[in-house]
Amino acid sequence: MFENISVFSVVFVLLVCFIIHRLLFNRRKYDPPLPPAAGTRLPVIGHFHLLDRDMRGPLDKLRKKCGDIFLLHMGSIPSVVISGYEALKDGYKNNPDFFTDRPYFLHALNKVTRGGQGIVMARNEAWKEHRRFTLSTLKDFGMGKSNLEVSIHEEAKHLIDEINAHKEDPFDPKDLLSAHVANIICSISFRGSFKHTDPRFQGMIKMFDENLASAGGLANFFPWVTSIPGDPLGVTKMFRNSDRVHEFCEDIIREHIETYDENCIDDLTSAYIKHLKKLESSNESTTMNQYLASLIADLFIAGSETTTTTLRWALVCLVEHPDKQERMFAEIEHHVGSSRLPSVQDKADLTYVEAFYMEVLRYCVITIIGNFHMTPVDVVFRGHTIPANTVVIPNIWSVFSDPDIWGDPENFRPERFLDDNGNIVKKEEYIPFMIGKRSCVGESLARMELFLFLSALVQRFKFESPPGTKVTFAEIDGQFGIVHCPKPYKIVAKVRP
Ligand code: HEM
């Protein structure tokens, strides 16, 4: 009878027994215990069957069932989701060393960041050095400086001209916004900016888009998807695109090295070269030698898509809420008029503009979850052990949708950020840029861009849905990836008299 049993069947049965044994009996005991598991963990996919591309529903359901801290296996990778402001504050702010590290074993992120170079996925000393350098350089060349305002105004003027060229015909603002926002990072990183018709620049923007639209993130947890013939998830394309972005940055860095002049340090690239030269001449040890291209690529990716997406959502909210659009216009008209563009100096007067983009960031939740974090060692957190090398995921959506914090989180209401005197209300639970040691390094830059672009657009145009259509948040919602984007949409821009 045994001759009918193939070697394959025997191996298969043994493999199944091994997996069942591992799942049932081979677990380390922890005291305090691990966080509650999200549900039934299936072989190979883990808890993936409980998730969706739109994470908001599943995250709410799992939080209701398991509490603020629960365990999800993404494939075989253990991950803990932290929800609610108090738990996030406890984990990321009060105990900043618990979750500051980044997981080095996520296949796609590791590949596109060349093993954690740059800043976003960097670790340990390399991360500290690059974060320090980036923050101080962004301060020197950008945030809060009038030369940055000049660059943003330049881009805003081009943007207005290009919108004007549509002559009140319906148009999709995405490519225009992408190009002008990316140009700001370009001018900080490489001094110059690109004409958005420049093929090198257009190619790069297209690659960012393709990477965001691809389901390449799955390769983080299931590296084998990379070998599926025909690349249906766009993973191979994502890797190729990231190589090209690096090559593009390396080309420009080479040009900078050739023309380097220590008396003319006016962008991030030359500041980096200067910093490296100083460290070399004093024989100080540094991790900063091959990281520059990755650092710039990180700033493009982390800084462009987030800001562009926020502006795209802002236009949807303006169209859906014409009364709020008129209130913003009236504020600009009253305090600035129409003969010049609104400036950072006007910020104290234009509080409705600020409250509006703040509400866009909250209501549209640009990053539903923050980036992936990791426990460097076993951590005891709120009655649970989270073992070393567990991925930790901050659930930002849980904070922005919490009725105990916002009262009516489901409504778009910029007024929630204004007090009775029209001043901005600062709420500690407002965390679109996350909190703790890994919070966004570009927050001030992003706020400045959102304020200047948005006020310039509302000063010049009245945005409306094209005739016969209704552009609303509910209609446009539905593209999920690293960033929560609107689906493509068209609007009409009528020039203000
Ligand atoms: C509206 C715009 C933006 C939003 C909503 C946003 C949001 C975020 C969030 C939530 C994080 C933290 C992720 C985490 O670790 O949990 C982050 C990190 C980061 N952001 Fe932003 N960001 C924006 C704009 C920018 C800009 C303009 C830049 C660059 C110039 C930038 C550069 C970065 C970098 C480099 C990190 C990683 C920091 C680190 O790991 O130490 N972001 N951002």
TrEMBL record:
Cited InterPro entries: Cyt_P450, Cyt_P450_E_grp-I, Cyt_P450_sf, Cytochrome_P450_fam2
Transmembrane parts of this sequence: 6-25
Keyword Magnesium: no
SUPFAM superfamilies in UniProt: Cytochrome P450
Record-linked Gene3D superfamilies: Cytochrome P450
The keyword Transferase belongs to this UniProt entry's keyword annotation: no
Keyword terms, alphabetized: Iron, Membrane, Metal-binding, Transmembrane, Transmembrane helix
Family: Belongs to the cytochrome P450 family.
Protein name per Swiss-Prot or TrEMBL: CP2U1-like protein
Organism encoding this protein: Mya arenaria (Soft-shell clam)
